[in-house]
Design a protein that fits this description.
The protein is mostly helical and 74 residues long. 51% of the residues lie in helices and 0% in strands. It has a domain of 47 residues.
Amino acid sequence: MAGERNTNQAAVPGAEKALDQFKYEIASEFGVTLGGDRTSRENGRVGGEMTKRMIQLAERQLQGGTPIPPGGGY
């Protein structure tokens, strides 16, 4: 909705900077410029890819594979 504020908070205090960097890295890979003037599809594609990669990382850790490094390893 137009004019609404984002109230999302990271589950890990201090992770906001790493998540923001991660978001812009993925946007760059996709050739997308994030912002309110972009379509929901463009912005949502970046968020979807972030979620996909974080789930893959967590699955590897749960399987006893690569541990998650400090800072998230994104």
